[in-house]
Amino acid sequence: MNKVTWLRKNLFSTWYNTLLTIICLYFLFWIVKGCLFWAFHQAQWQVIPVNLHLFLVGRFLQSLYWRIWIVLGIITILSLITLSLFTKKSNIINRRFSQSITPWIAPTWLLSFPINIWLIGGGFGLQSVSTNLWNGLLLTLLMAIVSIVLSFPIGVILALGRTSNLFLTRWFSILYIEIVRGLPIIGILFIAQVMLPLFLPTELRLDRLIRGIAGLVLFSAAYMGENVRGGLQSIPRGQTEASKALGFNTPLVVRLIILPQALRAVIPAIVGQFISLFKNTSLLSLVGLVELTGIARSILAQPQFLGRYAEVYIFIGLIYWLFCYSMSLASRKLEKQLGN
Question: Of the residues 28, 48, 131, 303, which has the fewest C-beta atoms closer than 10 A?
Answer without folding.
Answer: 303
